[in-house]
Amino acid sequence: MSLGKILGKRALSILAAVGVCVLAQMVLTQSVDGFLLRLFFLGGLYVTLAVSLNLINGITGQFSIGHAGFYMVGAYAAGLSSNYFFPRQSLDMPAYLLVSVLIGSVAAAIAGLIVGLPSLRLKGDYLAVVTLGFGEIIRIITLNQEAWGGSYGYNLNHKHQSLALVFLLAIVCIAVCRNLLKSAHGLAFLAVREDEVAAQAMGINLTKTKVVAFVVGATFAGAAGALFAHDSGFINPDLFKMELSFLILTMVVLGGTGSITGSVLAAATLFLIPELLRIAKFEVSQGVLLGVLVAVGVMVYTIRLVERTFHGEKTQKSLLLLGAVVMPYVVMFGVGKLLETYTILGDKFYKANDLRWVILAIVLLVVMLIRPSGLFGHHEFSWDWLRSKMNRRAVEA
Amino acid sequence: MALLRMEDVTIKFGGLTAVNQVNFDIEKGDLFGLIGPNGAGKTTCFNMITGVYTPTSGKVIFEGNDISGTPPNKIAQVGICRTFQNIRLFGALSALENVMVGAYLRHQTSLFSGFMLSPRAIRETAELRKKSMELLSVVNLADEASSRSSDMSYGKQRRLEIARAMATDPKLILLDEPAAGMNPQEKDELRAVVHRIRDEFEKTVLLIEHDMKFVMNLCEKIVVLDHGEEIAAGGPDEIRSNPKVIEAYLGEPV
To answer: Is-contact B92 A257, C-beta < 8 A?
Structure first.
């Protein structure tokens, strides 16, 4: 491809990305209510967080579970600086937000450097403990700063929800990671994940590679934090607890470590499941719930049984798998109804809202049992892949 | 001037002297063999040359510079690259990508342009891919370019490691038991590959090997280690008839 063509294509895709983001904001703010708008906003943030953690965890193989810490540094840096530098002026919002995002991401990048450098002697579980500790230390320090509001939280003078910026941030984050993987530099990061000794023997500077991964990952988390702080106008150390780090980590693992596509999809799904169940209007009796739980277990094991023992025709196998999915439900709903009529377990009914975390946990269990390597494994979605699939299908038909 | 000179190199782990006062010179273009029974300190020598260990005393001199204690990635930079006794490929990457990681060392564009995927980065990545494909065909693995390296057979993995080390464009290439676990036919292929590396690509080769027949047919100069001591040095014929070597390998005559 010629230079002009590459640059032209690049300019076009940047324009398209900005255009789509602005358009999305215009359309969504017109047509959707506040709750859904916030879901879109938070969805964008989670995608950014998951993809940026994927750079550290999945691509470079540095097991970090302190991502909420970087997110928090970004949020507080942006909040504190915006109250300090722009106390009361009425400001042109997006331009001022950009400055704030910049401050937040730089602060988080510095935090990434501080965590990255000394932790480089550590691997695996040991590194995980250090990053976990970092997240908690940052949170507890903030909790004890009275000037920053301590446990009461910190109020921002400006409050602005910019969907366009959030979407743009997510797109930039995805683009940067994808670019890295498409260039030869990405191979250095993957090599560090696969085997550090061999990578170093091939001349790769381990320190540099790991620190860059930490800093870039933290930068995006910090930018996300800055946008989050300005969206709610109020930040509080409790918003950045260990659970958040684990949720982001779960997104990365569920999507398939190293796969950007996987991280994006898993982030959107894992975040949306509990949020949508919050407004879903259905009730389940204890009996049925128990039935479903058992059914899921039976389903997972029958699927695995079929996978392991059946070696034959493809259509037959898919029929068997379908049976393995459907049958446990039919049986267990019957059992559930029976339990319900006899009210062995009492007759309490659960609302969808009460079950959000249970359902999330079940989804995780099922995915991890059926596909331990995550939804996408190490693979990525690409148009070439889709095209080859389609072609194969056409040839078969 | 010798390409690589080991000058009284000694390393001690606690009370154990793993390598004691080893001296040898490798000239440019040599096919040099380092042999000895198990535990003789051969791989430890490799680890000292490639910067994994720092010698307790003595010097490793490469092209006139003392390189003892330099970190492994710098050693690769100055032009020494190795393969591993227990294969260490990047398992999840394809054969081609493994070789590209080696070739990445001579990569010019900055990391930032990688993140931005600048036109230069695209062009250079394509060049790396082309260069790596050529190296894969040198070790007869061109057909396997896209297969996952951990799924390949043992012999192929060994050859892939050689291609990966070659890709860093070293002056001296260290092969740690390249023929281990290979069948006779694979060994013949390997011998041809090693000759090609030396003659066509003009690299200097230092190899550790247990298979006597393989070493004697391949190497022009050989150093024998036993319990960390250098017990013999010379051409294959001298080594074959050296009583100390026979004793080290077969035990004392009764």
So the answer is: no
Run of H or E including B151: none
Q: Check CB contact under 8 Å for B168 and A202.
A: yes
pLDDT at A36 over 60: yes
CB contact under 8 A, A212 and B111: yes
Give domain limits for chain A.
9-279, 290-396
pTM: 0.88
Distance CA A188, CA B181 (A): 29
* Domain B1-79+170-254 in this protein, CATH class: alpha beta
Say which range, A67-71, A89-93, B128-132, has the weakest mean pLDDT: A89-93
Domain A9-279 annotated CATH 3.40.50: no
The C-alpha of A133 sits at a distance from chain B's nearest C-alpha, in angstroms, of: 29
Q: What is the mean pLDDT of each run of 10 residues along chain B (254 residues)?
A: 90 91 92 90 92 93 92 94 93 94 90 87 92 93 92 91 94 92 88 92 91 87 91 90 84 65
In chain B, where the domains are located: 1-79+170-254, 92-169
- Best of A174, A179, A187 to substitute, by most chain B Cβ atoms within 10 angstroms, is A187
Q: What is the residue whose two structure tokens read 């301590």?
A: A150
Closest CA to A353 of A270, A271, A274, A278: A278
